[in-house]
Amino acid sequence: MKGRIISELKIGDKEFVQKTISEGDIYLYAGITGDLNPAHINEEYAKNTIFKGRIAHGMLTAGLVSAVIGMKLPGPGTIYLAQELKFTAPVRIGDTIKAEGEIIEINTEKNRVKIRTTCINQNGDFVLQGVATVMPPK
């Protein structure tokens, strides 16, 4: 399994993954990372926050972007070099998130690609926006 090499890519290429975030996803992420922030795992605490309930970890949502890049665009063998992120809305248990990448810049000489990265919930609200810099496989 190998991703697309730089000569197979063009500006405007898009790919996505989609996932419904479960309570189990949040607990698993908390356990793996050690991020036990009560905003994510304690409903009684989270009721008193600006979000009025538990929210998913922002980096859990960002992980869906990693799935797009690592598995689809450019895909397996791609090296992630950088990621700018802006979290624009909370993700809640039961939200279905569509993570999308779109190629916005190609530097053939350096074998680098910039990808606009977004995550959108089932209501069409952006929950994450950013730009990734990656090195496609050779």
Features:
138 residues, alpha+beta, 5 strands, five-stranded antiparallel sheet, Thiol Ester Dehydrase, Chain A, single chain
Task: Characterize this entry briefly.
The protein is of the alpha+beta class. It is built from 4 helices and 5 strands.
Taken as a percent bin, the fraction of beta residues is 25-35%
For the residues shown, what is the average pLDDT? Answer: 97
Strand order of the largest sheet: 1-3-4-5-2
Category by helix and strand content: alpha+beta
Describe the global form: elongated
Number of helices: 4
Terminal-residue CA separation = 13 Å
Say what the CATH topology is: Thiol Ester Dehydrase, Chain A
The helix/strand series, from N terminus to C terminus, equals EHHHHEEEE
The CATH class, by name, is: Alpha Beta
Helicity, as a percent range = 10-25%
Biggest sheet architecture: 5 strands, antiparallel
> What oligomeric state best describes the polypeptide chains here?
single chain
The H-level CATH homologous superfamily, spelled out, is Hotdog Thioesterase
Stretches where pLDDT is under 50 for at least 5 consecutive residues are none
Number of strands: 5
Number of domains: 1
